[in-house]
Specification:
By secondary structure, the chain is of the alpha+beta class. The chain is built from 5 helices and 9 strands; from the N terminus they run βααβββαβαβαβββ.
Length: about 160
Amino acid sequence: MENFTFTRIESGSEIPYKLLLLADETVEAIDRYIFNSDIYLLQDGLQDVAVMALYKNSDTELEIKNIAVVDPYRNKGIGSILINKAKEIAKEYSYKTLTVGTSDTGFQQIRFYEKNGFIKKGILKDFFIENYPDPIYENGLQMRDMILLTHHLAE
């Protein structure tokens, strides 16, 4: 773990679509938020192992739009490291809440966010039906609603 580096990708740099597509279905969907997001990359030596995109919803709310870890590094605590980094960044810039949305069929992702201090705050009905041209399936079920989760940051 001592070879890990966490860096913000500078504006105008190449966007790591290959990593972002691990957590989002299409480049078109990513393009809806990525150009107004701060992108962070976690590397192990020279290898890209994870990505996170943070988007300013308001002066008080920062949203995790994308968080993805490559297969060989999954289930090793990397996602929680990224969540903690997102919390640090949010606090540094005086945000009050950190939010994230995930599919109603993403049972593992929902548990992951709850384990990292997020609570369910709402549902965007038919989000995946209305925002993606083709049906998307996860865990054998069609993705339909987006579950919104939030984490209130301590002062």
